[in-house]
Amino acid sequence: MTDASTRAADLLKEHRESIDRLDAILVYTLGERFKHTQAVGQLKAEHDLPPSDPAREARQIERLEDLATRANLDPEFAKKFLNFIIDEVIRHHKKHQE
Which CA distances in Å does 25 have to 21, 72, 74, 78? Predict the structure, then answer.
């Protein structure tokens, strides 16, 4: 192996280790987020509140698009990601109300 290939292999390993750490952070962060949204869903069910809040969801999407732009992430991707999470949360809220 040449010095350049060894360096490339080392850099690849470092990037992959970072990706693995970030994947773990994402999973644990989503777990924490869902813990809170489940508590919100339980409160909504106990107090006969609607499972969704379209005004808040719209504000959150706008906020996430802004964060994505500042983080140099495609805002459309961020919007789709948040919509996916919101849909899942609403599904859980509705399930608890049945």
Answer: 6, 19, 20, 17
Q: Tell me the whole-structure pTM to 2 decimals.
A: 0.74
- CB atoms inside a 10 Å sphere around CB 93: 21
pLDDT tens readout for residues 43-88: 988 999 987 888 998 898 889 889 999 999 999 998 898 888 888 8
pLDDT tens digit string along 26-41?
999 999 998 998 898 8
Q: Which of 57, 56, 51, 53 is nearest to 95 (CA)?
A: 51
